[in-house]
Amino acid sequence: MKNSLSLSFIFLSRPLFTATLLLIIHCIIVQSDANDLIAQTCKNTPYYNLCVSSLRSVPRSSRADVQGLALVMVDIVRAKASTTLKFINQELKRSPKLRRPLRFCASSYDAILTADIPEAIEALQKGDPKFAENGTNDAAVEASSCEDSFHGKSPLTKLNKVVHDTSVVASAITRLYDAILTADIPEAIEALQKGDPKFAENGTNDAAVEASSCEDSFQGKSPLTKLNKAVHDTSVVASAITRLLL
């Protein structure tokens, strides 16, 4: 009986996951005009003002979803890193006494531009934000390592800070995108497959709450009412099935 119920839940939960994922993304996009998606996204980063000013400086940000904003931010990191590498190459000619740390920095920024950023862009385009986050985190580390290599006054302090901070912002946005993709239903499926229906029930309950929260966020007429109701109600059904397994 329990095996039959488990199969019923998994059969139900896969289309439910797809519907929930599409609904969450659509909910975010639809509300972007009213709530300003850039501002809402940047609230999830440690450098809000930098995030907002950077994204708004790129025209295509106004039409982007969270994935698109992540790609824009990674492009900004690439531009900042490219500017810094050019400055490093100039400093190598002007400051022979700083040749050792500058060479280290040149290597660090070459890694950002040839490895970390391409990795992040490719991962985002393939829908793998976790791997993209690794790339942007690595870029932030490279910038910090460059600064630390001077063991004192550095001619790159401002540039390193900009690259570090924009990389951290890009990382935070990719993490937000990852959170959207890895929602409650995959968690519930995994829990059920591991024989933990209580945890699975929590996941389906959370999915119902997400749908209700999306609907409530419009504070009036919503273009997603039917979709929100469908996801909410199927989540409640899935929750009821998992409860029978307890």
UniProtKB/TrEMBL annotation:
Classification via SUPFAM superfamilies: Plant invertase/pectin methylesterase inhibitor (SSF101148)
Keyword Signal among UniProt keywords: yes
InterPro entries attached to this UniProt entry: C/VIF1, Invertase/methylesterase_inhib, PCW_Enzyme_Inhibitor, Pectinesterase_inhib_dom
Signal peptide: 1-34
Keyword Metal-binding: no
This protein's UniProt keywords: Disulfide bond, Signal
Stretches assigned to the Pectinesterase inhibitor domain: 33-173
Annotated GO MF terms: enzyme inhibitor activity
Gene3D superfamilies: Invertase/pectin methylesterase inhibitor family protein
Pfam families per record: PMEI
Similarity comment: Belongs to the PMEI family.
Protein name: Pectinesterase inhibitor domain-containing protein
Organism from which the protein derives: Salix viminalis (Common osier)
